[in-house]
Each structure stands twice: as C-alpha cells, then as structure tokens.
Description:
5 helices; binds coenzyme A; GNAT_dom; Acyl_CoA_acyltransferase
Amino acid sequence: MILWRPMRGDDLPAVLRIAETLHPDYPERIEVFADKLAFFPAGCRVVEDADGAIRGYAFAHVWSQGLPPLLDQPLGPLPGPADCLHLHDIALMPQIRGHGGATLYLNQLEALAQARGLPALTLIAIKGQDGFWRGLGFKEFIAPTAELTARLGSYGSGNSYLCRDVTKLKESDTQTA
Ligand SMILES: CC(C)(COP(=O)(O)OP(=O)(O)OC[C@H]1O[C@@H](n2cnc3c(N)ncnc32)[C@H](O)[C@@H]1OP(=O)(O)O)[C@@H](O)C(=O)NCCC(=O)NCCS
C-alpha cells in the first residue's frame, strides 16, 4: 500500500535526487522546491518506505487557471485569481508504481481543493504523459491565451496544459491506495 505523508524541508535532498533521475529534461533547483514547500505545504507530500527512504514526491499549490508557473523559478505573487490547485509535479520511483499512488494523491488534492473552494485541478502533462492524465479525466484548458503558450514554453516543447473540474469525492477515496 502506498502511504503519502506531508513533505518536510529535510526531505528535499532526496526529492531532488528523484527529480534528477526521473525528470532530467526538466531540471529544477532545490531552492525552487523549497519555495513551493514554503508557499503551500498542504499540497507537498512524499512516499516514504519502511526503511525510511523517500520513493516518490508530489508538489501542488494554489494558483491561477491558465497561467502556470515557469519551470525552475520561484513562484512569486499569484498572476491572477486563486482559482485552482496546480499540480506542479508527481514522480514515483518505478518500484512503487502501479499501486494507485498517483490516483490516491490526486484524490487527496481534490479533497483539498474542495475544502478551499477551488473549482479546478490543473497541471502540465510532460511529453509522453498526456495519455496518463487524460485517462484520469484531465482535458485541454478551454481558454488558452498567448501568455499560457509563453509560460508553457519554459518547459520546452511537446507539453500540454490540462485541467479537471473538482468533483464530489467519497471520503474513502482519500484514505486507501
Ligand atoms: C505518472 C506516475 C506518477 C504514475 O504513477 P502510478 O503509480 O503508475 O499511478 P497509478 O497506479 O495511480 O495509476 C493510475 C492509472 O493510470 C494508469 N497508467 C499508469 N501509467 C500510465 C501511462 N503511462 N499511460 C496511461 N495510463 C497509465 C494506471 O494503469 C492506472 O489506471 P487504473 O486505475 O485503471 O489501473 C509514474 O508513472 C511516474 O512517476 N512517472 C515518472 C514521472 C512523471 O512522468 N510524472 C508526471 C509528470 S506530468
């Protein structure tokens, strides 16, 4: 069973190692991870195994629809209204994949969005992961702008900005993997 727990500052070196292994084309500095953790700790979680090793992480934060943050930059002020939870990244090491870990984290995020009155989850699906997110109900953002295209460009080419409405969850969806 996958168990997510809140991320702590001392998890960040292990988080960085996973990010460097799984996302070599999307490098981010540890200061940028620390900025996201300080900005919205409720959205930042890790998977720790029985030996105390970190095997996965996820960063999400309150943000503005259609205006995703730039890669490897501190967040700064919101560029618009606080109207979504933006999933910046989720990464699980291969040995813990396929056990519902991503689904469980998403359900937890959705519960968080509901509790904060945020109507949508947003994310940037990196090249090759589009199908995964569409399978989980994410769709193309309905009102793309030139600014969205410019922000997306900081991640390179071939990535997509996707969105999913927040729906009502059963309580059990956020508790089991
Ligand atoms: C993306 C990732 C977090 C998914 O982790 P996971 O443990 O496989 O997720 P889950 O077990 O919750 O799978 C959720 C569903 O997606 C399906 N799925 C998994 N990988 C898929 C893929 N590449 N394409 C399509 N569907 C996929 C699963 O079969 C499952 O469906 P089911 O519930 O009907 O069985 C993991 O593969 C990963 O860390 N990848 C590398 C980092 C990455 O690309 N992150 C995303 C950045 S946008």
